Amino acid sequence: MTTPSTRHPRPHADVLRDTATLTGRILRHWRGRPVSILLGLLFPVLMVVMFGYIFGGAMAAPGGKYMDFLIPGMLAMTMLFGLESMVVSVTNDTAKGITERIRSMPITTTAVLAGRSAADILNSVVGLAIMIATGLLVGWAPNRSLLQALASVGLLLWLRFAFTWVGIYLGLLLKTPESAVAVQVLVWPVGFLSSAFVSPDTMPAWLDAIATWNPLSATATAIRELFGNPSWSAGGWANQHSIMLALAWPAVLTVIFLPLAVRQYRALAA
């Protein structure tokens, strides 16, 4: 195993340059496999078609059309999909020895992990643009101001940022692409056990409680409010304070998983 070189404090300008370099490395890697990236970006669009047109006729949206209820939920789900793609990316780099080679270079941990996070945020911006365009094409429309629409995008990217650090930590912890399959399997229950597709008050009481307090539900409910789209009808603290929860949940996840990711990365050579 390669022993990383001794690290010394580096100027902030160097850290930023290293971060930009590593972000560019990931983006160039994606450019070399455009088909898989394109499929990843279009998969949420296929889910909109499936749930909006195949199942949508049987769905009852509180206070409006089901498509108006679905699109904000799918925007939030798109942010969750970044978690599994991050885990796969990190485990692939570890399995191929790329992570170990980068560790041997005079590059700070901050730059290595921040580069991954920055590249993922750029990818999510493209994904959001595609999903918003899809929503507009199928008849969905925001009914509030441009500022509130931008605030919704900000909440979505904030959630993606938090999920990015969860994904980095799990990828470093699992190490092999085969073990990453477990995370991919777990992402789906987290996504469906939320208010992304249906109102939690249609579920049994114990599932209702879990779905109501799901971080994904907080963001989906908050952006429905900001977009002026129909939301789930049940009252309760979580529904009435969804914007606050949409800010708080990603902050909690980041505070927990960002330090864990840094510690796990530094422990790879141990």
Question: Any overview of this molecule?
Answer:
The relative contact order is 0.15. The protein is mainly alpha-helical and 270 residues long. Helix 3 packs antiparallel against helix 5 (109-137). The protein contains 11 helices and no strands. GO terms for molecular function: ABC-type transporter activity. It is a multi-pass membrane protein.
List low-confidence stretches. Answer: 1-8
What is the distance, rounded to the nearest whole angstrom, between the alpha carbons of the first and last residues? Answer: 10 Å
The overall pLDDT, averaged over residues, is 84
What class do helices, strands and sheet pairing give?
A: mainly alpha
Largest sheet: none
User: How big is the Rg?
Assistant: 20 Å
Helix segment tally? 11
The counted number of beta strands is: 0
Membrane topology: Multi-pass membrane protein
Keywords: Antibiotic resistance, Cell membrane, Membrane, Transmembrane, Transmembrane helix, Transport
Transmembrane segments: 35-57, 69-91, 121-141, 147-172, 179-198, 243-262
Protein name: Transport permease protein
Write the layout of secondary structure elements.
Blueprint: H1 12-31, H2 34-54, H3 66-95, H4 98-103, H5 109-137, H6 146-174, H7 177-192, H8 205-212, H9 215-227, H10 237-240, H11 242-266
Which key phrases capture this entry?
270 residues; antibiotic resistance; transport; transmembrane; Transport permease protein; single chain; 11 helices; mainly alpha
Task: Describe the structure concisely.
This protein has 270 residues and is mainly alpha-helical. The chain contains 11 helices and no strands.
